[in-house]
């Protein structure tokens, strides 16, 4: 197999594009494609201040790397969720990436700041008898907006890739989650001064393609998944989609592209505008009186005070 550009030995094969590239031409292709996504979807410009959600994993570090190389104004945000040793190891990767490149990294420690030093995501889920990902997702969404607003970043960029988007779409379609479908997009405009614009510049790349980029660039990332990801529904959908993709290359992209072109704009247009108030506890926007984040953490602390299941654990 030869590189499409220089005919040297190819390092990465992209079956769905009927192309293959050597290492330097692959990174060139990757960086150009990210730039094309940013411009085509009007995600941001060189004047914007972009907060990159950094987990220490390959996708978020690849995204931050490309944005810095392209000259965008960025800072990283790492959220320490207090999930066993995984949080510690992923934080080390995020801090090392930022430190080696002299990039600004904001670190938020959920257990210290919101859980009285005792409640991280693992204890929160036990106290509330919910799966960890539900409390975790809400906490991450809240903190991303809150930190972006507090530090003056108008755009929030996440490393969601094509596999993530296709799996989310499959889950939303299987359960006909119309509200979620209306908001599933690589770009969500800000609807409130406290809510940053949200963008996903890697939404056209598969996990394998992002992995190829970080390997070629020598970016050190955390390989292990969050322990709570095992058994998550999204993994089942990703496996199903991988089987379809193997039999028919390009299916994942066609699935997501078709949805974004045909259905998403109709659903988004039909979404009724909602009035947002300031949360009476924290001041962040909410449709009710107290936001879901404050309610959730208050319930977890109340459960702890009653001596229920909140015990700091190693898992
Ligand atoms: S970090 Fe949080 Fe994920 Fe872990 S608890 Fe679930 S949502 S799996 S991306
Ligand atoms: Zn080449
Ligand atoms: Zn609140």
Write structural notes for this entry:
It is a single chain. By secondary structure, the protein is of the alpha/beta class. The protein has one domain: HUPs (Rossmann fold). 51% of the residues lie in helices and 11% in strands. The chain has 12 helices and 10 strands. The protein has a 6-stranded mixed β-sheet with strand order 5-4-3-6-8-7, with helices on both faces. The protein has a two-stranded antiparallel ribbon with strand order 1-2. Strands 9-10 form a two-stranded antiparallel sheet. α1 crosses α9 and α5 packs across α12. The radius of gyration is 20 Å and the shape is globular. The protein starts with 11 loop residues before the first strand and ends in a 10-residue tail after the last helix. 38% of the residues are buried. The structure holds Fe4 H S5 (Q46) and zinc ion (ZN) (2 copies).
The number of E-state strands comes to 10
Any idea how many domains? Answer: 1
- Summed up, the helix count is 12
Q: Which runs of at least 5 residues are low in confidence (pLDDT < 50)?
A: 310-315
Radius of gyration: 20 Å
What is the mean predicted local confidence, pLDDT? Answer: 93
Q: CATH topology, anyone?
A: Rossmann fold
What's the arrangement of strands in the largest beta sheet? 5-4-3-6-8-7
CATH architecture: 3-Layer(aba) Sandwich
């Amino acid at each position: 197999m030869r590189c499409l550009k220089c005919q040297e030995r190819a390092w990465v094969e992209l079956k769905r594009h009927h192309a293959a590239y050597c290492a330097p031409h692959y990174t060139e292709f990757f960086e150009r494609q990210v730039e094309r996504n940013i411009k085509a979807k009007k995600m941001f410009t060189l004047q914007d201040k972009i907060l990159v959600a950094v987990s220490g994993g390959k996708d978020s570090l690849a995204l931050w790397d490309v944005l810095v190389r392209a000259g965008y104004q960025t800072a990283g945000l790492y959220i320490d969720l207090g999930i066993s040793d995984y949080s510690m190891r992923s934080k080390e990767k995020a801090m090392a990436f930022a430190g080696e490149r002299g990039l600004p990294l904001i670190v938020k420690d959920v257990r210290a700041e919101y859980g009285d030093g005792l409640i991280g995501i693992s204890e929160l889920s036990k106290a509330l008898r919910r799966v960890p990902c539900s409390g975790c997702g809400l906490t991450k969404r809240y903190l991303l907006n809150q930190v972006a607003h507090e530090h003056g970043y108008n755009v929030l960029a996440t490393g969601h890739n094509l596999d993530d988007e296709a799996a989310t779409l499959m889950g939303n379609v299987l359960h006909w989650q119309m509200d979620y479908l209306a908001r599933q997009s690589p770009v969500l405009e800000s609807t409130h001064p406290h809510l940053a614009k949200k963008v996903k510049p890697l939404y056209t790349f598969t996990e394998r393609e992002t992995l190829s980029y970080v390997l070629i660039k020598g970016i050190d990332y955390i390989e292990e998944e969050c322990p709570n990801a095992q058994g998550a529904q999204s993994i089942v959908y990703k496996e199903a989609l991988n089987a379809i993709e193997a039999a028919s290359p390009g299916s994942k992209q066609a699935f997501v592209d078709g949805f974004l072109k045909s259905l998403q704009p109709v659903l988004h247009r039909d979404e009724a505008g909602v009035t947002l108030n300031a949360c009476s506890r924290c001041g962040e926007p909410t449709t009710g009186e107290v936001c879901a984040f404050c309610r959730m953490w208050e319930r977890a602390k109340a459960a702890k005070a009653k001596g229920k299941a909140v015990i700091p654990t190693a898992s």
